Model the fold of this input.
Amino acid sequence: MWARTVRLGLRARLGGCRGFTFKVDPQGTGQVTAELIEHLERLALVDFGGREAVARLEKAIAFADRLRGVDTDGVEPMESVLEDRCLYLRSDNVTEGNCAEELLQNSHRVVEEYFVAPPGNISLAKLNEQEPPPRG
Amino acid sequence: MAAPMLRWGCAGRRWAFACVDGGSRHGLGARNDFTLSGMRGQSSLALQPLITAQKPRKGEHEWAAVVGLEIHAQISSNSKLFSGSQVHFAAPPNSLVSFFDASLPGTLPVLNRRCVEAAVMTGLALNCRINKKSLFDRKHYFYADLPAGYQITQQRLPIAVNGSLTYGVCLGKKRRQVITKMVRIKQIQLEQDSGKSLHDDLRSQTLIDLNRAGVGLLEVVMEPDMTCGEEAATAVRELQLILQALGTSQANMADYEIQRQINELENGGEILNETRSFDSTLGCTVPMRDKEGKQDYRFMPEPNLPPLVLYDAASLPAGADSRQVINIDYIRERLPELPSVTREKLIEQYGMLPEHSFTLLNEAGLLEFFQNVIKETRAEPKVVTSWVLNIFLGYLKQQSLAVSESPITPSALAELLTLLDHKVISSSAAKQVFEELWKSKSKTAAQIVSEKKLELMQDLEALEQLCQAIMEGHPQVVMDLKKGNLKAINKLIGLVRKATLDRADPTVIKKILEEKLSS
Done:
């Protein structure tokens, strides 16, 4: 799976990149822009907090970038560590469910056996203005 | 193989419009949800059109609308795609939800064999290449009805690719001409459905029901080979018929949205890159808040599922557990008859026109009705076809009834057509009887015929005398005829018919009159 020789410092292309494109650092400068942080915060709903967190992210990216040093020409990418396992097929029988009461206990708010969520599609900017939603 | 069962379920729908700039195609926004109301039954087909308007070249004035479609069909199965909870459309909220569906920690997906078979069957029916190895991925976005925060789908390597769907478009003023068109199928993939959100704007909250979360979906992606809303609608209808014939899915859906977009394009309206949501009260789509920036689904391989491996007769490992392997050839051999084959057989067997075969299959239950009538009468198939498609269907449409709601049974119509075939009654009398049958549920055709004395006159001598009398009573018409105006005979026939209270066969009348005139 790994190439026999590891050449550090060379920017070899990751072999056979199918489907998942590398969007994080298009310029290859290793710097994480404020724009990118905002984008990530919106997508993943995480709060980067401050400069420290961003610096940590940059270090993490730099560390992962070292993978590019590996020569993977002609090597099939590994899709899953389970690639040699058999995918188990379940028969089409009803074996679960009917536990609404149990599941609803996990919810802070419930209305007549429905989970209650805040109204959909509120932009992140607007959310920041409001009180944080009740956690449960 | 599991017996096909027809299931219903509500599907969420999202619409996306392509940006009008050189034919680019944007991805789709996050799912928004609603319940389809005002339709018979429930919908298990959701439609996403991607309409790209290609900029006209210099000198051209017309926009070329190109329609691509993504169709989500809910798989007919007992249990969900990755869990053992039941698939059923009407149940108390959150009662058909397992721990996995609710995304509780420690739960894992377990693939449902029936869903894989459904995907293979559909792929084979659409002439696809079935990928012997396909992969599952996670597609991330946040929405209350998606408890895990991601949907398991097949983005990198779906189960079936590169197929085609052939459909027939009826052209001409009377829609008599049927032209075959083809749309390429880009891929078919297995994916999870999301739960259902009910928006309560009054209390500023959303109620979530996860009964539908995790139900298996087949996403069928069509290439933008269609040039108008009508083609798209017809292609989708054909796909629906195929899915029903396979037992893979059942569906009802409105194609008004395609038509609306086409109308807008044709009016030169600009279509913005926006996501629309369906407002069930208004009965149309309304624009949602614009998406801020592009949607990024952060696809990653599903770490809990190994690749899905399928086999054929050649590659099947010896001594394998039949419950754990899926043999594509085995499934191919047992594919049910597809609509296109059914139509060919109808044309061959009964000598009907292609457009008739389309009509028979397009109307739910009509084919079965037709076949039941054929079984019980020896009347000419062409006569049966004509009566079923023109008179029977006409009455149904007039009163907005489905075939299942018909007051006339196939046996009743068969009896009527037999009477007609044996020349017990005339064609116009038969129509009268049909009208009576439609209204009164307990009488048979024979009863109505005798009650209303609609039997054809069998006494030839009496008929001859009547013809003689009419001829003598209208010498001018007879003279006209003898002068060479052959159409005047119709007037005589009409008079005789009236005199017999329409109980004489016009062809017999004509024969008698002609004999008398020539003597």
Notes: The first strand of chain A starts at residue 89 and ends at 90. Chain A touches chain B through 48 residues (CB under 8 Å).
